[in-house]
Write a structure and sequence with these properties.
The protein is an alpha/beta fold. It contains eleven helices and ten strands.
């Protein structure tokens, strides 16, 4: 394999981590999916099982290929031996100190593997600075759900070596993703654009310009977005989007300031699809407009 990636560790078995593990295993990699929580790890395994079953049902994946994918994934409550890893993808919560700790430990345990973060907004340059060899660090920002969404945003830290970027681009092609390469700037390309659109859509809802469903329809039908910004915020998680918006406000300015409505919903525990309510009600995994 031109990318030299065979043994992969995915850290964090949530929605993104489980999806990334599935994608890598489908491409023939031996994948270890790690999480500190046994409950989250079991939920991640169940998520992968549902995804593979759905792919087989829709004729997008053969039953043998699905079984081979399952066999390539192991589930672990510890990192295990990191010496033989070729790639680590971190998909833990957006907490800088946690990410720096993880990358510092892994860089000490393996001097050659690629260290990638799935962060959607935090500085890769700062994360890389915690490592023994920061040239091996970059961002691999997947999109939800990773087995379906074709984009991979590759984020180069100031220290990232060109050959590391080249290997990850080759790996992107192997896992059937279309990569873009961006500099390590706040929000990169996708979060910066997506958050500002999302915050303005929330302000429009707050001001009574239109209903959530009609604001989303405007973008879906008028601009051919596959999903409107409010429904997307529900899927990503209102708490996640609030944290990113606050980070971008600090880094780039007031245009990213979270609207009061977003803060109110987060305080009320209405975080979107994962809690059953956000800008929509969520029933059996489907968004239902509020009355």
């Amino acid at each position: 394999m031109s990318d030299g990636i065979q043994n992969v560790l995915v850290i964090g078995a949530g929605t993104m981590g489980a999806g990334i593990a599935e994608v890598a295993a489908k491409a023939g990699c031996s994948v270890r999916l790690f999480d500190v929580s046994a409950e989250v790890l079991e939920a991640g395994k169940a998520r992968i099982e549902r995804s593979l079953a759905k792919a087989v049902e829709k004729g997008k994946l053969g039953a043998d290929a699905a079984e081979a994918t399952r066999a390539r994934i192991t589930y672990a409550g510890e990192y295990g031996d990191v010496a033989g890893l070729d790639l680590v993808v971190e998909a833990v919560p957006e907490k800088m100190e946690l990410k720096k700790q993880i990358f510092s430990e892994l860089s000490a345990g393996n001097p050659t593997c690629i260290l990638a973060s799935n962060t959607s907004s935090l500085s890769l340059t700062e994360i890389a600075a915690a490592c023994q060899d920061p040239s091996r660090v970059l961002g691999m920002h997947f999109f939800n759900p990773p087995p379906v969404m074709p984009l991979l945003e590759i984020v180069e830290a100031e220290q990232t070596a060109p050959e590391i970027t080249a290997r990850v681009r080759a790996f992107a092609a192997r896992i059937d993703k279309s990569p873009i390469v961006v500099r390590d700037m706040p929000g990169f390309a996708t979060s910066r654009l997506g958050i500002i659109l999302g915050m303005e859509a929330i302000r429009m809802l707050e001001q009574g310009v239109a209903s959530a469903a009609d604001i989303d329809s405007a973008m879906e039908l008028g601009y051919r977005h596959p999903m409107g910004p409010l429904k997307l915020t529900d899927l990503v998680g209102l708490d996640v989007r609030l944290a990113i918006a606050e980070h971008l406000t600090r880094e780039l300015g007031p245009q990213f300031t979270p609207p009061p409505l977003l803060r109110m919903l987060v305080r009320a525990g209405k975080l979107g699809a994962k809690t059953g309510e956000g800008f929509y009600k969520w029933v059996d995994g489907k968004a239902v407009p509020k009355k």
